[in-house]
Structures are given as structure tokens and as C-alpha cells.
């Protein structure tokens, strides 16, 4: 490209910052402004806190604008910034059609799935939960429909057996930051023909799929493999949890336990599903499959500090040794 492209960025959280940072240091793009969410009350004291994108923009002299889900504000943003290109990553607002159609080079979104599969808010977590072997990055034209726009490019990424939502997300964020600039240049120079999605193959995932309620482990109902995936999908939030119903340590009964790391092991157990026990220096929970238990390697019991497996066994876990 002969001249840098006037680019308006939409985003909110840390992964948005990585995308913004990559474009900001890339001379092919002139970041004329960012649109992000308004400051939110955070913590017990409800202190008004700016988004990560706003922090980065202010630190780097980039003008910040808040649309507040108001169409008139979107129109004002176009008048103010006059972008040739809009780039969006994890913004969190429904964007009006006239705003998307304004730039010469349209509006581009970075979505972490292989579209049309997993349109929606939580594609990484849902892919792990469903036991998928791969996910990816879809770089696409934005449309008024949710993740329905034509696709410019897709990168595929394997889901490793020990991947959590966090570890997989970090890889996808890094990869998207590396490749986005070149894809945008190819698009601007007319070297990419967008491909329509096959709507008949679309699947969806919603923010409500990843909640504290959905993170509860139901030992009597859930397949052991699903439980292990649930643990990985719920990192770093809301974290998979269960309530101790039975066990030799009476003062633990009724306590909520959060699981940060776990793996399945083949071991015979005649205990009721959900019962904690210690065997061969491992902290285990029986499942509905008597031949399979979940080994807990990192946990936090309600009202106590987070512990590694060994520290738990050497402490209050001694009573659970079979």
C-alpha cells in the first residue's frame, strides 16, 4: 500500500488490545481512533474502570470514543474519524448497518472459530466443551447478523489435549495479531474474494453457555470426559466447581470446591459419584464410570487458599486416604 489506511478500531478487553497494538505499530495503518465500552464499576468498591483498549489508546495518544449503543453516536463517530477501514475484535455492541457500510474498505471482524461453526460469544469455550479437535480464526466482513458476514480468510488451530480456554485463546490472539496486517493489505489491494458462509451449517454459542451455573459438575449425570473438558473450558472464569457431599473429612461436607487443573485416570472405585478420595498419592473424585476417576491437581476449597494436589493431601486430605 502506498499510503497508510485511516483505520478505526473497535474493541474492549486484553485480546482486543493485542490486535490494536499490532495494527498501531504497523505503518500500513493509521489508527485514527478507537471505540470502546464506557468505564465500568469494578470490585467491591465499584471503582469506575476503563477498558483495556481505552487504557492502551490513552497511553499511546489515540482518541477514544464511546458510542454507548446509540446510533446517533455511531453517526457522530463516522463524522469525526472518517475511517477508510474499520477493524473489530471482541467489542461487545451490536453495530448498525450504516456504520459498517461507510468505510471504503468496509468493516472487518476477527472471530475465534471456523465459521459458520460457533457463531456467537463463546466459541473457544464451546469448542473445548464439545470435544472438537480444532478451532481457528475467521477474518470476515462484518454484517448486521451475528457473525454472518463473508469470510476473507480462515486459519486453523489444533486444540491440544490439555488446552484450557485461556491457553488456546492466548495462541489464537498471538496468531491473529501476526497475520491480520497482511490479510488486510491483500483485501485492500483487491487480492481477496470474500466467500459467503453456508448458513445451513451454522451453529451458535451464547454467553449464557458459560456461567457459574453451567460450571457446576454434576457427577451423577455428566460423562467423565465431559467433566474433564468442562474444567478446561471454564478457565480462567467461572471455574468448574462442585459441592462435597461425602467424604471422610466431615468438615469438608457441603463446601464448594473449584477445580483449576484435572485429568482423567483409569482406576476402579466403588464410591458414589462425586466422592473425594486419595489413592497412590493422587487426589481423586469418583465419577459415574466406576473405572474412571478425575484426578484433581489444582483446587480451592471454599474459605481456604488455592492448593496444589500434594499440599492438599499432606494437609486436610490425609483423612481421605483409602
What's a concise summary of this model?
Helix content is 25%, strand content 28%.
Mind explaining what this structure looks like?
With 322 residues, the protein is α/β, with parallel strands linked by helices. The chain has two domains: 5-205, Formyl transferase, N-terminal domain (Rossmann fold); 224-320, Methionyl-tRNA Fmet Formyltransferase, Chain A, domain 2, CATH 3.10.25. It has eight helices and 17 strands. It has helices spanning 14-24, 52-59, 71-81, 97-101, 123-129, 165-188, 224-233, 309-314; strands at 5-11, 29-35, 40-42, 47-49, 64-65, 85-89, 107-111, 119-120, 134-141, 151-158, 204-205, 240-243, 256-266, 276-279, 282-286, 292-301, 306-308. Strands 5-2-1-6-7-9-10 form a seven-stranded mixed β-sheet. Strands 12, 13, 14, 15, 16 and 17 form a six-stranded antiparallel β-sheet that branches. It has a two-stranded antiparallel ribbon with strand order 3-4. Helix 1 (14-24) packs parallel to helix 6 and helix 5 packs antiparallel against helix 7. The longest helix is centred in the middle third of the chain and has 24 residues, at 165-188. The chain is elongated, with a radius of gyration of 23 Å. It starts with a strand and ends in an 8-residue tail after the last helix. The model has no long low-confidence stretch (mean pLDDT 94). One of its GO terms (cellular component) is cytosol. Keywords: Protein biosynthesis, Transferase. Residues 210-316 form the Formyl transferase C-terminal domain.
